[in-house]
Amino acid sequence: MTDLLPAPGLTGLLLGATPPGVYRLPPADTTPRVVSLAAEADWRGATLRLGGVTTKTAFLDRCATDLEFPEWFGRNWDALADCLTDLSWWREEGKARGYLVLAEEWTAFRKAAPKDARTAEAIFGDAVDYWAGEESPLAVLLG
C-alpha cells in the first residue's frame, strides 16, 4: 500500500520539501485544488480519471486518452513504462519544475482489478525513481 502524502502535503511536494514519489492523496485535497496548486508551482499536471475502469485494457485506454500519450503508445505495461520514462510527449515550450499525474478513483480501480493496480503502481514507482534525480521530477498521486 502506498503511503499518504506526508506533511506539509501537496505544497511540500510541489516546492521540493517532500521528495517526489507515489503517494495517496489526502481526502481533503480535491482534483481542482491539486491542478491549481500544481499550475501555480510551474508543475505540469494531468488527471487520470479512473471512474468505471475495472480492467487492464480500460486502464491503459484511459491512460492513452487522459494523459494524451503519443500515437506510438502500444497499450501494454511496457509501453506505459516507456511513456512515463520518456516524457518528450508531455513537454511543451518552456521548462516545468516537475510533472504530476493525479489518478482519480484509484481505490475503486484497485478493488476492481487488484493485480493490475499493483502492476500500474509499480510502473508509476519505477518512473518516479527514474526522474527523481532530474531537474524536473515526476510525482504520482493516487486519489
From TrEMBL:
Barstar (barnase inhibitor) domain mapped to chain residues: 46-142
Entry-linked Pfam families: Barstar
Residue stretches in coiled coil: none
Family note: Belongs to the barstar family.
Name used for this protein in its record: Barstar (barnase inhibitor) domain-containing protein
Species, as recorded: Streptomyces hiroshimensis
Taxonomic path: Bacteria, Bacillati, Actinomycetota, Actinomycetes, Kitasatosporales
